UniProtKB/TrEMBL annotation:
Species of origin: Scophthalmus maximus
Superkingdom classification of source: Eukaryota
Key words of the record: Glycoprotein, Glycosyltransferase, Membrane, Signal, Signal-anchor, Transferase, Transmembrane, Transmembrane helix
Compartment(s): Golgi apparatus membrane
Ligase found in the keyword field: no
Protein name, per record: Gcnt4 c2gnt3 wu:fc31c11
Family annotation (InterPro entries): Glyco_trans_14 (IPR003406)
Keyword tRNA-binding: no
Pfam families for the chain: Branch
Family from the record: Belongs to the glycosyltransferase 14 family.
């Protein structure tokens, strides 16, 4: 066992306690399962009796404290009473912008001086679940930030209409000027973010950092706390960047072809036996993931660099180029916020950009998933709320309201409380009236 894994196991020694709690929750689940099923409670009315999305009658503070009965209740909700919030309902609500802004509380968002002085930009690459996109934006929302949404050209008409409604109602939310038909693990996923980055540089908002998100991400810190954390970076970038394994090297040492696949994204890059030429300009390759926190100076440099353009062109026939593109670029000598090539690997657990729980590391590095697994990734459940909020990362992936809506609802509630707490000790401006 490596020294790093040993340290991680020591760090997560309380996971045995978490396992015990999960066993208790399963017992509670069995107990609750014998209770006669009752219909789900109707959603509470928003202002002016407007329907937004379904909320569940749970105590989020008790779930955060890992109260077995309340977490057990969340298990029963997700097994029996999950209500699907349709894209159509968001289309209907955004057809009346004043009502949408009021019912969702955008008209009462307070902003601290620190947040005004440090605007953030977001690139959201999404393709489904419009309410999840809106809730993600709302949790991070301030009028001084700017949000670019790239929707997949293959998205449903209702989803696109809902995103267009957000664009119409929120002045600092816009749709990417150029949109891709995104295929899993292909250059189109990377190009979607690049399209947003190009638009964000053209914006009048002089944002300090840009963060990219997908529709199954959710923040673990409120905007004002993110601003505090990012200020301390002092222009450095934050993302995973490690030396690739032999297996991952095959992703960019062989030519890949996009072929039809029986898969949600319809096409998939397939490895061929054709070897690629080495990376241009003698670039040393690093790997990471698709997600980043990048300084404005870095993005400006990248946008005008011939080396970056050549590297992007070279990456077009690789597998999942977004998982080596950013990780490699931040290691280039002389780039703003450079991570020197001589420095050790920055793993996903060391980088605070995204907390992901992989099935094969559960019980070794972190406690087991309380939700379900999709392609080895945990879709989080309410039983992980305390762990998520206390690990130290800024965002987590993945969440799905069809799997566990309670954890999303409780994260919203907790982050709203933290935002107000942080703002209570700062100079804050709120809308009049």
């Amino acid at each position: 066992m490596s020294a790093r894994l040993f340290r991680l196991r020591r760090k997560f020694a309380p996971s045995r306690l978490c396992l015990l709690i999960l066993y208790v929750l399963l017992l509670v689940s069995v107990k609750y399962s014998s209770v006669p099923e009752s219909p789900p409670e109707p959603p509470p009315a928003a202002s002016d009796d407007v329907h937004t999305f379904h909320k569940y009658n749970v105590s989020c503070s008790a779930i955060y404290d890992m109260d077995p009965a309340e977490v057990g209740k969340s298990l029963i909700i997700r097994r029996r009473h999950v209500v699907e919030d349709t894209d159509e309902s968001l289309v209907n609500l955004t057809s009346n912008c004043p009502l949408f802004l009021k019912s969702r509380g955008y008209d009462t968002v307070c902003v601290s001086q620190e947040e005004r002085d440090f605007p953030l930009a977001y690139s959201l690459v999404v393709h489904k679940s419009a309410w999840m996109v809106e809730r993600l934006i709302k949790t991070l929302y301030t009028p001084d930030n700017i949000y670019c949404i790239h929707y997949d050209q293959k998205s449903s008409a209702q989803f696109i209409a809902a995103i267009e409604g957000l664009d119409r109602c929120l002045p600092n939310v816009f749709i990417a000027s150029k949109r891709e038909s995104v295929s899993y693990a292909s250059i189109s996923r990377l190009q979607a973010d690049l399209n947003c980055l190009s638009d964000l540089l053209e914006s009048e908002v002089k944002w300090k950092y840009v963060i990219n998100l997908c529709g199954q991400d959710f923040p673990l810190k409120p905007n004002i706390e993110l601003v505090s954390e990012l200020t301390r970076l002092k222009g450095a970038n934050m993302l995973e960047t490690s030396r690739p394994s032999k297996l991952k090297e095959q992703r960019f040492t062989f030519h890949h072809e996009l072929r039809d696949a029986a898969f949600e994204y319809q096409k998939l890059p397939v490895k061929t036996e054709q070897k690629k030429t080495p990376p241009p300009h003698g670039i040393e390759m690093f790997s990471g993931n698709a997600y980043f926190v990048l300084s404005r100076d870095f993005v400006v440099h990248m946008n005008s660099s011939d080396v970056v353009k050549d590297f992007l062109a070279w990456s077009e026939d690789t597998y999942s180029p977004d998982e080596h593109f950013w990780a490699t670029l931040v290691r280039l000598p002389g780039v703003p916020g450079e991570v020197p090539r001589s420095e050790p690997d920055i793993t996903d657990l060391m980088s605070r950009t995204r907390l992901v729980k992989w099935s094969y590391l559960e019980n070794h590095v972190y406690p087991p998933c309380s939700g379900i697994h999709i392609r080895s990734v945990c879709i989080f459940g309410a039983g992980e709320m305390h762990w998520l909020l206390n690990y130290g990362h800024w965002f987590a992936n993945k969440f799905d309201p069809k799997v566990d809506p309670v954890v999303i609802q409780c994260l919203e509630e907790r982050l709203e409380e933290k935002q107000k707490l942080f703002q209570s000790v700062t100079s804050t401006t709120c809308p009049e009236g």
